[in-house]
Amino acid sequence: MPYLRRAVVLVLVAGAVLWFDRVRSARPSRIEQASDQGILLVGNGTEPQTLDFQIATGKPEHNIVSALFEGLVAEHPSDDYANLPGVAESWESEDFITWTFRLREEARWSNGAPVTARDFVSSYRRILAPELGGDYAQILYLMDGAEAFHRGKTEDFSQVGVKARGDHLLEIRLIGPAPYFPSLLKHYTWYPVHAATIAAHGSLTDRANRWTQPGKMVSNGPFVLKSWKFDHVIEVVKSHTYWDRERVGLEAIRYFPISSDTTEERAFRDGQLHVTQTLPIDRIAHYRDEQPEVYRTGPQLATYFYRINLKALPELADVRVRQAFSLAIDRQAIVEHVTKGGQTAAFGMVPPSGNDAPYRTPEMLRFDPEAARARLADAGFPGGQGFPKLTVLFNTSEGHRLIAQAIQEMWKQQLGVEVELLNQDWKVYLDRTSKGDYQVCRAAWIGDYMDPSTFLNMWMTDDGNNQTGWSSPAYDGLLRKAARTADPTARFHILEEAERILLEELPAIPIYWYASNRAVSRQVENWHHKLLDNRPWKDLRLKPINKE
Amino acid sequence: MTRGGDIDGGFGSARMRSTSPWRNAWRRMAANRLACGCLWLLLLVVTGCLFGPAFLPGPDDQNLALGASPPSTGHWLGTDSLGRDLLARCLVGGRLSLLVGLVATLVALVIGVTYGMLAGYLGGRTDAVMMRVVDALYGFPFLIFVILMTTLFERSLLLLFVAIGAIEWLTMARIVRGQVLTLREMEFVVAAEALGQATPRILLGHLLPNVLGPVIVYTTLTVPAVMLLEAVLSFLGLGVQPPDASWGVLISEGAQSMESFPWLLFFPAGFFSLTLFSLNLIGDGLRDAFDVRSEK
Amino acid sequence: MLVFFVRRLIQAAVVLLVVFTITFAMVRLAPGGPFAGERVVAAEILAAQEKAYGLDASILSQYGRALGLLLRGDLGPSYVYEGRSVNDLIGDAFPISLIIGFAGFAIALLIGLPLGVLAAVRKNTALDHLASGGAMLGICLPSFVLGPILALIFGIRLNWFNASGWYDASDWFLPALTLGLFYAAYIARLARAGMLEVLSLDYIRTARAKGLAESVVVGKHALRRAILPVASFLGPAFAGLISGSIVIERVFQIPGLGYHFVGAAMNRDYYLAQGTVVFYALLIVLLNLVVDLVHAALDPRIREKGGLQS
Hints:
heterotrimer; B: mainly alpha; MetI-like fold; 11 helices; globular; C: mainly alpha
């Protein structure tokens, strides 16, 4: 009898499991449901710290803000260089210093109010207000008088080079000729805010002003904010007031902050996401070989490099030592065997931006262990003898750690220099680098706009981001000269000359140029790889699954 | 309580006072084949960790072109993503993990048992104050504590011991105190007090042997817990500095790529589990050996 | 009894104050402030940001302000998540961690307790070794290994549950299972040890001698005392469970409390770090109180003397 009872129980349990399996495994996936409703599901890295883009600093914030707001100039779906009309119908400038923008009359805020030139003036006034403390306001420094106002040197905003000449005519005056200015305007710091709405919810310059909450936010882009569930999802839906609403191909976009790349990849496989933010290194080969139809990769406008603190050790102030360190790094091995995600071994500081790019990065960095040893011997350390033990600082991350270990080994093998690794959490790392309390540290720089100056300005003597103690009057002079040169070709020649100095002196050793890797589901149409990864969300379409 | 209890309690206390229980325990332990087998296994792992790397390629020797490769005759357990020999890394990592596990547990054990016994035996107001101190320390979330410690001080092994030990003794103290609270009402303790024995004598002679059972079990739980904490810290990037590795570091690295390179997770996790498994069975054996009352 | 409670409440307040003060000091001593970022901003701008949040005031007046807010039940603003208060952040995340923690706790008890008791009753049999071995496996696998494995099996291969996320009513299951299996292993081992201890005691022998059925002896007489060590463990374990786990939250993408503990300290989000620590301490203090009460209820001798008079 007990055997019979056990058998009955066993059968019942097995039946229950089978029934459960049948019911659960047949559930439609989330992207199937969403595709039918025209809702795009996007993996978006980390939880946005704020949607007030005038104080925002991160990529996740940018992805959402660029769906909610629109600047004077708009992004092209595939071409990074193209500048499409946004709120501005057209623009013109004779000397590349004074620019006039004609705003389109049908542009509307989500509350129905027209978008006017005065909105832009009050927006720039807000982002430059010192009390607001906008981190990225520096990007506006190209505008005449912006820096003085932002740094509190003057309180008279009329000194700043932005004027509304009528409802739909905006004039911006720069500190010098900048032919690339329209491309810069695609950066979110140049977007407009609806000042009256912000003022209605508190002080205009209060960072904690809650105007960015759903129901309160007024925006002028193709989408409006619908809901914001902290650490879970942000949903934006198609705007009914947007001037180009006919072209908006999606009903809604949901952004999921998934900070772990392995979790995000599982979510993609589970049918929860149309688009991932990234892919785990060890899964890239799988996608490349097995699912090429969803694998998207391409170069990014970003450089990974090691900063060298010239003030930390007398040895590091010797240019030959820095050159030896650079020559001893096998960059090709690092991108092929360590990062493995389609990154490019860097031969300069400025990442190449396309085959027909107007700027040519000088090819100066190479791997040459012989020359490296010779250079170090010249400096008085043959075979690394007598060279002090070096400490490489990096912030905690699996990727940085692997690269640091690879470079540690290369310097030890090729140069005989002993290296100690020190990983610190992000804030300690920042604290130490900004105070110059390091010898060598890992760093990265992501381009803000399509121009080499975004990678070169930071190495000027007084720039806060230099942090190496390196100072070259010749370099500073060239960059200042470039800022005064209107002719693009001549300007690029000057910048190239400057980059040569940088690569000769090597206050920072470029390692590789970034690449993006992500999975994009087949339902998503019109998704193109872009160097800056700035996407005009309105151009994306979803094809329902059943149409396949 | 029945009269039998009285007699048995008296008998128990008589046994406690003699020195023979230790020898008896050892005899019982030796008779436990499973526990002894585990002891040998543990010895093997420890020996391997101490002396094995001498016969293997260096744990930091890279071969970038080779990359992550599955087990082969050249590398018995395969190589990691930088082409380093996994067996060598596992053995060297074992040194660190065992060190962290044992030292931090020892710290926790000594502080926790002393503190818990005192609190439980002294009772009353002293007990209340002592336990509130434990509560206050419990009130600190461990991770915040460690993160802030690592930012305030240079990161080092010593810091890891202190941080983990300082957390782990709390539960030990609570468990011991709970036991002592019950034990000191028992007849043999009351009897010892009535006979006017000194407090240290009562603590060491009567109470300690009787709390040893739970203490040993909890210790064998603490060693894995400590090693796991170290692993979680490694997962969060707060563990040891590279290129040094512990089992925790290796497991968390392996877990990242468990689908593509399963051996990178499997072998370190195997070492880790085998060691913890042995530790626990040894702990069980010890517990049974020390538990005089479990003889039937 | 009332005196006992009042006294414990006063003690709790002191504990909270100490915890708060130490955290306040520690987060501010840690290098790097909440507004440090990859791109260096001008000193004037950093000063403006710090002024906006009162960080330019003296450390003592900042302490006074934070304490004043705390007394009013306000944990202050978050520095990193602009426009959100710490109360909001904890209020959003805690219910989710509570659900998962509670479910994990239930799973841990449901699996761990019977397994431990069974192993003790059938000591040194195959069942004991199987149960103990299974429990060991649970302890040996860190949650950042177990979690992804469960997600791959039940989320992706079988598609029974969502591999991650917080969408459906069933999304608590996998995270709770990951949490619960770990704690179940602990409970099983503590229960086994406790049970073995008790089974050898006189009153159990007496009960057996009286000819009571084994199930009654174990279930009614022994179990009560046997779970004492378990109960000591459960208090803090429960607090640990319901305050979330950063590892589980990352693996399963759960908007819970665990992330804030680590994130706040890492980001130097001063008020959030203080707030989460105070909140956690409050949970611990309350749960310890409960444990003491349970202890007393389980063991009549403590109730009569000692324990509760403290």
